Amino acid sequence: MPNLARFCNEQLKTNFALEEAVVEPGSPDIFNYPFIHMTGNGRFVFTQQEADNVRKYLSAGGFLNINDSYDMDKFVRPEMKKIFPELDFVELPFNHPVYHQKFDFANGLPKVHEHNDKPPQGFGLIYNGRLVCFYSYESDIGDGWEDARVHNDSEEVRQKALKMGANIIQFAFSQ
């Protein structure tokens, strides 16, 4: 996140702190952050209190970005159903504005890290006409936000990941 914050500060003229904050989904502190990012490998489960809190947060204007780092999909979908039982993730078409902010991604999400040899996909939860959650699947753009030595991604791949991250942030703050 610090690399993405730095990139956004340079490219989008934001003024993000370079130290990331960590907030628990059930905490009232979540409302202090208009944009939250969730990632990880594998299993996570929301308590009902956490799900209710995240729903209030997203309904009130917050934005959740989920990066499927690896093997999260089987948890993301049912856990997000706890938050919005009435919604399903929809695949966002390549002409969706999230792909066409400062940087243009005519073919949708860039592929940053190979896990299962599947194409990258961007999914969204749309609540009352507003995209409240963007879920990057099989892209792992978060790997590209890490320091170069962490995943040994090329500078070209890292730049694509940072640019897509900046698009997500710009979209979240402009809708």
Q: Could you report the average pLDDT, rounded to the nearest whole number?
A: 91
Tally of separate domains: 1
**What does the radius of gyration come to?**
15 Å
CATH superfamily: Domain of unknown function DUF4159
Shape annotation:
globular
Helix-strand makeup class: alpha/beta
Summarize the structure in words.
The chain is an alpha/beta fold and 175 residues long. It has one domain: Rossmann fold. It has 6 helices and 5 strands, in the order αβαβαβββααα. The longest helix has 20 residues, at 155-174. The two termini are 22 Å apart.
SSE inventory with pairings:
Blueprint: H1 2-11, E1 35-41, H2 48-59, E2 63-70, H3 73-83, E3 90-91, E4 121-127, E5 130-137, H4 141-145, H5 148-151, H6 155-174
Parallel strand pairs: 1-2, 2-5
Antiparallel strand pairs: 3-4, 4-5
Helix pairs in contact: 1-6, 2-3
In short:
The protein is an alpha/beta fold. 35% of the residues lie in helices and 18% in strands. It has a single domain (26-174), classed as Domain of unknown function DUF4159 (Rossmann fold).
